[in-house]
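Re: your question about Glycoside hydrolase

S., sorry for the slow reply, the queue was backed up all week. Below is exactly what I fed in.
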Amino acid sequence: MKRYPLTLLFHLFILTLIQAQPTTQDSLPLRGFCIGAPGADGVERFVKFIREELAPRGINTLILRIDYNYQYTSRPELANPNGLSKADVTSMLEACREHGISMVPQVNLLGHQSWHGSLGKLLQEYPEFDETPEVELPENYEWPNEDGLYCKSYCPLHPDVHEVVFDIVDEICEVFQSDAFHAGMDEVFYIGHEQCPRCNGRDKAELFAGEVTRIRNHLHQQDRQLWIWGDRLIDGKTTGIGLWEGSYNNTHRAVDLIPKDVLICDWHYERPDQAAVYFAMKGLPVVTCPWRNPEVAKVQMADMYRFRESATPVMKDRFRGILQTIWSGSDAFLDQYYGLRAHKNENGLSQVDCFQAIFPKEAEMKK
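Result:
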């Protein structure tokens, strides 16, 4: 009798599970796609992608990372004059509505207020919000570095910061006509920093939870739900998940301090870590987020179906679904998707392949 390696048998089993799952849009409560918003000159091509690719693959939720790529009127000092207009957003919104797709905006709050050698728009215009003003951005960024700089954060205890950022949040949610908002809040390395006169010495978990709660409560007043990435709520050391997909600065205890209606987007890209169970057992709704490894993503998809199938009635609906993340710009991704540039990295991994593997079109399922 021919013998097969256990790893091969396991992957065959997982593939069988994937193929056996329902392919309709209702097979999971959330079948999502997250990508940076296109530039104004890329909206028409992106609308085509919504109609011809997202809709036929049963996507029902589209998260667009907006940040300051929009012509804000509530805070014109934070607007990008060449960014998306209200008409651009309306064009994408109409295409989504034709196919039952909800569109959710993302603006990074708390963390990701800089990138490598450049400040984001918020700290450019309001340097007083900087949690670490003494940390200077290097001309040539390298990681690791002596300052522990990945991205800067704003100070969550600055008395004026929320008046500013909530104007942005409210405006973009109204333009998107959205009942949800994604605040990012991932990879926050600067919080409760010794340089900050307000945050220094405070419990970092309480600071993080306080900011999550404040944003959540603001959104709740307009019947909107807060979504965040989940990495800061995982103990990176105890789990071995590490400092990117988990926290090394003790923010993870915030998981027990935040409101239970915050949706957690739990991202794991190298292994199918089953942290969704952890979040669901903490009482939080959760989606699992793959990126560019199709085999890992297939296991994550099968796991999500399995969690929902085996969970108690109380737990089941906390397992919300799958969210494909794309971490190149919209234009670059569409170039990859339509064969205008290579889509595999040096290790053969591909966010295009990953997306197509877990969200095939009905015609592809029959092949």
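The chain has a mean pLDDT of 93. The first helix runs from residue 6 to 20.

Happy to talk it through on Thursday.
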